[in-house]
Amino acid sequence: MNLIKKILVPVDFSDYSKDALKYAVQFAKQFDAKLYIIYVIEPVIYPADFSMGQVAIPSLENDIKNRAEEEMDSLIKSYVDPSLETERIIKTGKPFVEIIETARDLDADIIIMATHGHTGVEHLLFGSTAEKVVRKAPCPVLTLRKPIKGFQFSAQNGQV
Prior knowledge:
The structure is a single chain. This protein is α/β, with parallel strands linked by helices. About 40% of the residues lie in helices and about 25% in strands. The strands form two sheets. It has a five-stranded parallel sheet, with helices on both faces. A two-stranded antiparallel ribbon has the order 3-4. The protein has helices at about 15-30, 60-80, 95-105, 120-125, 130-135, and strands spanning about 5-10, 35-40, 45-50, 55, 85-90, 110-115, 140-145. The chain is globular. It has a single domain (about 5-145), classed as HUPs (Rossmann fold), CATH 3.40.50. The model is unreliable at about 155-160 (pLDDT under 50). It contains five helices and seven strands. It is found in: Cytoplasm. Its main location: cytoplasm.
């Protein structure tokens, strides 16, 4: 009996998240699991004037979403073995909230994600999406940072 059938992999298109995706691909192969790759767009809000408050700009958000879809397709083509069942998910909101809600909605068995390893003031100011996901996720979370022990990757299709 396979305990891991659904793997959620948050990406932000950084090298860190690409390495986590490569790792998740190998993990998915081991368990014959489906990969759900999620990218979360943080809403773009511009201060307009004091009478209207903050205003979101829909056309800019559409451009960002289209660009995210292109990046996601490219990422999947470059790093995911075509034999694996894969679903791409693009959401808008706070990354850690959307990741947690998606894991819950999918009934994900595990989340595999990169941690950028921010420390000091940078960590205090920005916090860590990975840390918030670990604390609140409805399933186990495997966080990865460089170097990733155990796998050596080539550039194409996440092959070991």
